[in-house]
Amino acid sequence: MIRIRCLQLLQIRRVTLAAALLLGLTVAFTASDATAQGAAEPPGGGGFQKPPPIRTDLKFDSTDAIRGHIAEHRSDFFVGEPVVIPIVLVNHMQHPITLRTNFNPRGNLVVTIQRENQAPQPYYGPYKLAIYAPLDIKMDPMEQLDRQLLIWGDGNSDSGLALPEPGTYTVSISIKLEVPEAKFIDQPTFPPFQLRVLATPPALAPLVTELRGWRGFIPLQLKVPPEGHEERLMELIQQYPNNPLTPYMCYAAYKELLRQYNLHPEDKTLADRMLYYLQIAVVPETSFQIEALNELLSIFDQMNLSIPAWSTATRILQVMPRDLQGLVGNSKLMQKYLINSKELKTEQYWSILDDYKPAAGGNAGAAPK
Length: 369
Hints:
Elements: E1 25-30, E2 65-70, E3 76-78, E4 83-92, E5 97-101, E6 109-115, E7 121-122, E8 135-139, E9 144-151, E10 167-175, E11 177-179, E12 184-186, E13 193-198, H1 205-214, H2 217-221, H3 230-239, H4 246-263, H5 268-281, H6 289-302, H7 306-319, H8 325-328, H9 332-338
Parallel strand pairs: 3-13
Antiparallel strand pairs: 1-2, 2-4, 4-9, 5-8, 6-7, 6-10, 10-13, 11-12
Helix pairs in contact: 3-4, 4-5, 5-6, 6-7
């Protein structure tokens, strides 16, 4: 375990991603199929700088489309296990466009779950009723957008679980889309798919039962520990290591320890524990992987640990969705560790070099040779 000296207040740089979906079925929705509604444009968002204005001089025809599918994914899970579903959207239009949407089940994503022989129920995840503004996502022709939907916590369920009992569940998903350049508004539906939920393995049954008693899956999906059970959650991580819930539990534990550390920055024990849980949380591919890696990079930078920081920065590049790579160009922290790195392929990540000016008289980066 790395011993951390006093870090002062951690100023974590976050890249928050919308949540995600999965299967192997394709749906296409074309500009000619949708009609302009004449309504006011919803607010945009996302990114770190003001986006360029929407172009109104582009010509579109009936061959222009946004195509999407639920990517391949597992269909068998156990009760209490996080279900990650990957959604893919591709710009099959002849021009660069602005895709205005989000992947929040309280926002533009519409999700229903139907248990066998029961009525379908809307799935809103752990999110409260609010306005979740769509994001303006710039996409070049044939560019692919990859996101994930996490089906796990459910604020409308007594147990706090979206899939609370063994059985077969049918999931239906649609997404509200707008392409303002093409005056295109639509809500296409993906083909429904089934999830088979099995009984929780006996070795993990006590863990799932205890979390259900707290309705703990809701805060865990929101990346915070169940209120009043913070220390117990950390005990459960040690008691039930290396299971599908581990990274989510560890990330929530990290968030709690970060909160405590910001109140007591002289406590090196808190710093040690905080980094320990964060490093476990970023190992598997989860719905928050990019966010967690950015926080880990920020900590390594503040500790002046250039080798782990460089390694983390290159890992972020490897797992970052293509449409988010432009955000790297606005991150001075990423530039600092990648500017001289052989992993930085300028033809692929050219935006990283945009407007970057090294510190006067110094080496621009800290990448190892």
